[in-house]
Design goal:
The complex is a heterodimer.
Chain A: H1 11-60, H2 63-70, H3 78-83, E1 95-96, E2 99-100, E3 106-108, E4 115-116, E5 122-123, E6 133-142, E7 153-162, H4 168-171, E8 179-182
Antiparallel strand pairs in A: 1-6, 2-3, 4-5, 6-7, 7-8
Chain B: H1 13-61, H2 64-72, H3 80-83, H4 90-93, E1 99-101, E2 103-105, E3 111-114, E4 121-122, E5 128-129, E6 145-153, E7 165-173, E8 189-193, E9 207-210, H5 212-215, E10 234-237, E11 246-253, E12 274-280, E13 285-295, E14 298-305, E15 308-312, E16 325-330, E17 333-338, E18 341-345, E19 354-359, E20 370-378
Antiparallel strand pairs in B: 1-6, 2-3, 4-5, 6-7, 7-8, 9-10, 10-19, 11-16, 11-20, 12-13, 12-19, 13-14, 14-15, 16-17, 17-18
């Protein structure tokens, strides 16, 4: 048995060819549309990221915001390491640094799950498609001599973390938004 | 044999009609899809141009140079408190509640957008226009977008001096036509900036004589005992400084070691105390203060804030007459440092014009008093 138009009609093959053509055109436009949409999303995120990093650095540079943040118990031994020269700053690993806004609300919240939406609204379901960005602040110390670690060099590192969801990781280079501040 | 109605090529009339309907349907469907995609793409291109515009505004806002131009401009009068951070009157420096729409300037001081104008807007393609109509139910289809950027002094309490600045960008869309309205909330933005403007001041290059009663509060004055009188007095920086930049001031202090003085003079005498302070130029009081004294034959120091001791020298640290002491100020954050290492950070922000005051120990305890005073200033 052969599948053919026994009457020699060209109508159905033409219809099928036409539909393939139409869907090809649709596919092409759809792809172009999606490329622009992704670029749009990337640009939107880049603007939001720039604002976030600038604001974070500004608050670290604000005496009130920084000094109140430094004293948060959630920042562990940071305050003692910074301001108590008799304290042995025996902290060998990087620690979370929660940063307060000028008004005392948390600006960078290191609680697990806290993150940002693609348009940089705060969210608490990181990592997820709706909450794909997280900005992390960590502090660490470098002792200046052997023995007890009094008044060590202190650093705060800012690092963008992108959830491996939705292809955002391929669009934005997170390292562009990292920074390192020497507090002492 | 069943009889069909066939054309000459063997296609039935019904098949032909079905074919024509399918082709027409496909074309109509395709046109619809193309229109939809094209419309979506057009909207997407609008969004893209508009996002680029928004990002350009953000870049200008966070540029220190352009912000300096904006503060200096007379047409942003609410920013006067920022200009007056060198005023000795606290009320003039106070930016509490200050907020306004912004006239956005570039680094050359040229007007880029006047967000204080109610008619400044953007077309769908992101082109500037000045015919925005925000009337509810009204609108202008060729100038339907608006971005309002406001600045505000960001403080948790009053007085709000040398504050961080928060910029808020809020988008709106108003058009009488049934146009596709973008999701504007995703375009809104907030940026915080710190230390973007600081009135210019002159770097101190010397000291001038000061009076005890004028520059140090009575409670901070050392009492004279047993006829041992402070013969050196107080000196102060010859220029007033503002804290909104990076200021390093270093000095050494000639402190006597055990045996350097003999009876009737003793190292523990109060006349052997020396102090260096950051003095509020407006109130003439020492606020941040380093006091070197001697306890049990050992030179030590304490740091005071408003006359109250807040830090003492750590036991493992030794100081002597060659030790380099420093006050370092970074945008109002005051640190006390020894040999370039900062051990104490005052939690309280320095927010007033100030001078350094120097009060050496009396003779014969300290033959050369406080010396090597050097001050440097750099912008943040």
């Amino acid at each position: 048995m052969t599948i053919r138009n026994s009457r020699g009609s060209l109508i159905f093959p033409m219809v099928i060819a036409l539909m393939i053509m139409i869907f090809s055109i649709f596919y092409f436009y759809h792809n172009a549309f999606m490329v622009r949409k992704v670029e749009d999303q990337r640009l939107l995120s880049v603007g939001g990221l720039k604002a976030l990093v600038v604001s974070t650095k500004a608050l670290l540079n604000s005496p009130h915001a920084f000094m109140t943040s430094a004293q948060l118990t959630s920042n562990g031994s940071f305050w003692n390491c910074l301001n108590n020269p008799n304290f042995n700053c025996n902290v060998s690993t990087e620690q979370d640094f929660n940063l307060l806004n000028e008004d005392g609300t948390l600006y960078v919240d290191m609680t697990a799950g806290r993150g940002y939406t693609p348009t940089f609204e705060s969210c608490d379901s990181y990592p997820s498609l709706a909450c794909p960005f997280r900005y992390e602040l960590k502090w660490f110390r470098e002792c200046v001599g052997p023995g007890a670690c009094y008044s060590p060099d202190l650093f705060i590192r800012g690092q963008l973390v992108i959830a491996n969801i939705g292809g955002l990781k391929n669009l934005i280079n997170p390292e562009s938004y990292d920074f390192l501040v020497k507090v002492r | 044999m069943k009889k069909n109605i066939l054309n000459r090529k063997g296609v039935t009339l019904i098949e032909s009609l079905v074919g024509v309907v399918l082709i027409l349907g496909s074309i109509m469907g395709a046109l619809g899809v193309l229109q939809l995609v094209s419309g979506g793409q057009k909207k997407n291109e609008d969004d893209l141009d508009y996002v680029a515009k928004r990002n350009q505004v953000i870049s200008l806002l966070i540029d220190d140079t352009s912000w300096g131009k904006m503060v200096d401009e007379d047409e942003n009068p609410e920013m006067g408190c920022l200009l007056k951070q060198d005023a000795t009157s606290e009320s003039e420096r106070d930016c509490t509640g200050k907020t306004d729409s912004l006239r956005l300037l570039n680094i050359k001081g040229e007007l880029v957008y006047d967000f204080r104008s109610a008619v400044v807007g953007f077309s769908r393609a992101g082109k500037d226009c000045d015919t925005y109509d925000g009337t509810p139910g009204g609108g202008n289809p060729v100038c339907p977008y608006r971005l309002d950027v406001r600045w505000e002094a960001l403080c948790s309490s009053s007085p709000c001096i040398n504050p961080p600045i928060r910029f808020r960008g809020t988008h709106s869309f108003n058009s009488p036509l049934n146009q596709i309205v973008p999701n504007l909330e995703v375009l809104d933005f907030t940026v915080i900036k710190m230390g973007m403007f600081c009135p210019s001041t002159t770097v101190p290059n010397g000291l001038v004589a000061g009076s005890q009663t004028t520059y140090v509060a009575p409670s901070q004055v050392m009492s004279d005992q047993n006829t041992k009188v402070n013969t050196i007095g107080i000196a102060r920086s010859n220029q007033v400084m503002v804290p909104c930049r990076r200021i390093n001031m270093s000095f050494v202090e000639d402190m006597p070691n055990a045996g350097d003085v003999s009876a009737p003079y003793y190292a523990i005498d109060p006349e052997n105390n020396a102090s260096v302070a950051i003095v509020n130029e407006g109130t003439n009081t020492a606020v941040y203060e380093f006091v070197r004294h001697n306890i049990g034959g050992v030179n030590t120091y304490e740091l005071r804030y408003n006359g109250v001791t807040v830090f003492n020298k750590p036991n493992w640290l030794t100081i002597d007459r060659s030790t380099l002491f420093q006050f370092k100020i970074v945008n109002g954050l005051v640190k006390f440092c020894i040999e370039e290492r900062c051990y104490h950070y005052f939690p309280e922000k320095l927010d007033f014009p100030f001078r350094f005051s120097f009060r050496p120990a009396a003779l014969p305890y300290s033959p050369t008093g406080i010396s090597g005073v050097s001050t440097s200033m750099t912008d943040l």
